[in-house]
Amino acid sequence: MTRKNLFAFSGAVFAALFATSVMAEQSNSGAGDFFNNSPESVAPAFHDAPKQSELPALNYVNQPPMVPHSVKNYQVTKNVNQCLNCHSVEASRVTGATRISPTHFADRDGNIGSSSSPRRYFCLQCHVSQSDVEPIVPNEFKPMKGYGK
Fold this sequence. Notes:
By secondary structure, the protein is an all-alpha fold. The protein has a domain at 76-125: Flavocytochrome C3, Chain A (Flavocytochrome C3, Chain A, domain 2, Orthogonal Bundle). 26% of the residues lie in helices and 0% in strands. The protein has three helices and no strands. It has helices at residues 3-29, 84-87, 89-95. The longest helix has 27 residues, at 3-29. Keywords: Electron transport, Heme, Iron, Metal-binding, Periplasm, Signal, Transport. Component of the periplasmic nitrate reductase NapAB complex composed of NapA and NapB.
């Protein structure tokens, strides 16, 4: 390693260490409340989620349906997906919940499998909870003709 490369590498290491120590200090001081579970760290709109409601009308073709119930504290990780406790093919027969769409079993090449595709496993990427709040930014979106309210 040349002297110039060694200097650049050591500078990058020191910068990474400094950034890590600053983030650790912020999380310990309360400045990084984003990762804490305190009520102040949760967006206020999350508290306005309905307990249970009807599915709202879709606004465009192939829109993922919104979730008509709160998903607070739902665990959706690579090992656990609590949405499937009610919405899997087997569970939906018992719970009466909407069954996951057949499209969720297709891989990126269009092959249909027996379990949900990894690209469709993290439900909350597309399906979001409803909240009755004012928009944060102006929105002039108009549903397609025949869709929406």
